[in-house]
Amino acid sequence: MSVAQALAPVPGAPAGEHVFAGGRIDHHVGRIAAVVDPAFLAEAGWDPARQILVFAPEHPLLGRRICRAEGCATTATAASGVCGSCRKRLIENGLDEFEVAALPPRERRSQRRGPECCRVPGCAREWLSLRSGLCSAHAEQKRRMPGVGFSAFLTHQTVKPLPLLPDCSVQACVRQRRHPAGLYCDAHQQRLRSLRKQDPGLDESCWQVTESAIGHGGEVSLRGLSPLVVAQLLAGLQQRCRINAVKTCDAVLRVLVNDIRAQRVASLADYTIGEDRDLEFTGLANCLTGHARRVLSTPETEVTQDEWDLAVFGHNGTLSFTAITQTWLREAAKRWAADDLPRRRVRSGRRTSAGMAVRHYIGCLARLSESLRMRTDRGEHPQALGRTDMEAFLHRLAYLESGGQISGDARIRACREVRIVLTRIRAMGLTRPGGIAAGLGEDFAIGQSDVPAEPEPGEPNRDLPPEIMAQLCAHLDRLTSPQMRTAVEMAIDTGRRPEEICALDFDCLTRDDDGLPVLIYDNHKANRPARRLPISEQTAAVVIAQQQRVRARYPHTEVGELKLLPTDRRNPGGRRAITAFSLAFAHRSWVDRMPLLHNADGIEYDKAKIVLYAYRHSYAQRHADAGVPVEVLRELMSHRKLETTSGYYRVGETRRREAVDRVTAMQFDRHGNRIWRQAQALLDSEHARRVVGEVAVPFGVCAEPSNVKAGGGACPFRFRCAGCDHFRTDVSYLPDLHAYLDDLLRTRERLLATTELDQWAHAEAMPSNEEIRRIRRLIDQISHGLDELEPEQRQQLQQAVTIARQHRSVTLGIPRTRNTLPDLRPERTT
Fold this sequence. Notes:
It comes from Mycobacterium simiae (Mycobacterium habana). This protein is mainly alpha-helical. It has 4 domains: 3-66 and 216-295, no CATH class; 299-448, no CATH class; 466-646, hpI Integrase, Chain A; 653-806, no CATH class. A hairpin with a 4-residue loop joins strand 1 and strand 2 (52-54).
């Protein structure tokens, strides 16, 4: 259930009447009470008249484990499932914890602990003890009739039922007073007596307000709290059960309520958690307080705060603007965030990175705020800011990078994100007269040229070597959790992102028309739901085995609501999946526990490289090495662009060589003659020649020795490639030839129209008709060669051209050198 659904007022629920029996409540309390569902109050055992919660022991989130002994309703906190009283009975009877069933049943008339009604028929007063079963008045009467048995006493004509006594004067207590003349129940009377001995000056009226109720297993008294706090606690408990789906211990909730009562707060917002409280108590208090605060929060009220609860906007986490000290910049940042958040995608019941992304933007603005504080006016006046202030900010980012305090990527992102925000606040009109940032100069901005250039990405290398993958698969049995093992196997076999693996539905496996298995998953990153991925029968068997385990664990949950990988936490119905964070943590622990891993050379492999996302790169590399076309691999990876897919794998030497074979089989000399028709017979020697050395020219390659030695910068023929025997071109350079021809024609037309050159200069600059004819012939011959190919051959050649152009070296004026040959005899010394 989403936060918005949980916070919606219950249709048809009277404002507060199902929470408070009688009495008038103000509008503010009524709005909170309207959010509380009567159905939830019924399952939580809420008594609006007595203001107590009585949790059913069998409730999946609010229940408790009761003692295994027959007839005992006491909470069993020990691992054995036996309460302290029954453990004593076991010892008395010479039994151990495995023989609980041999204990005689306890004589209890109800499952509720604490005083019940006197056993005299019709008497409304509470008994003093289970042993006597009588109220104080009837117990005293029984004491004066020693010869009368208990059964006879109950029906004796002198024994009359007595009316109900007033409640104990302690506001939280639901017990009756001990006798008509007293003020307290027996337990609180004893507590007061003990406290007076310790503190003779005890303020009894204050003690009546702050003293806690007598605790009973499964019961929590909210008496003595303000109506606002009662409504907040009930609303918070409802959201904790329905949104967080986390168990709540009645004993911890009882301690929290007692602490709230002792602080006498009017609202949960005023409650202070003690420093000595443990994590369970702190977590419960923060959870209830947070949910209670969100009940009446709206985006309109939240944007006025300096710290936002992003749950109000449909996202996760919080967003703080306190690090931005300039008023105009802080308010502009709020306006920008309020404008940006609606554009972020949300996922019902799942965390997203939207809050993290917006927090990063605000963090970058905080760096800008820190830089502006160095001014004498601390940057409070936007109209006084200019280019020098922005340059100071850019200088500080460079200084932080040089000192290793931020990475180069963080510096680039800071520049980009500040640029985006400043551009957007101007577009929103915030810099106009009367706006938040009125007067902010146009020169206080970051231009495109101010953003440092990103380094050119290297060749993909995040995939794991086959020998490492084999070693990992050999240790899969060390993953003890079935969910985690299934998730890791699915990541290895399918190459899906960790988030996509974790979010798989129970019925994610189907069959195509040929009966082959297909995995259905959601590509959340690209917002492409219900993607279909062909998988092997072995992977399908892994899915089927996991489905059987899940169904056996959650037999009563609808199949459409189950997850394939349900989490063990906060998940009584199997509707919540494991998170990518928990999967990554389990995977890292598994990898770290392995023995040393070695690559094919016997060198220890760095385990830090073995991350979940590496399996996705390995999946892409496996398919690329198997010759899967890049268009098909793009669909398998669920990418929109081929460029994205190409960043996931390296083209192996075998595929590169095949591409060169196809391309060079369509190679031509300067006359346009095809020079390599019998390419297969010469492939080995030609490959060797290409490796030894050649230099790239604008639309082909040059093998002239002196030019190669000089790195392409010392052509003895003044770069007349179209007329040189050392020049070669092939089909992969066809686009370059077209571009060169167009440039020659443009140059010729421009020179024909000019009159500013001398005749000799004009003749030197004019492209020759022979060169133009030669380039045209090259283009025609290459195109004609393509037309002679069959459609399938033409498609294969086009793929080879794409590979060759992707991996063609950029001309840097450096000749190609021989690759290092493998050392076939490492035992020899140099």
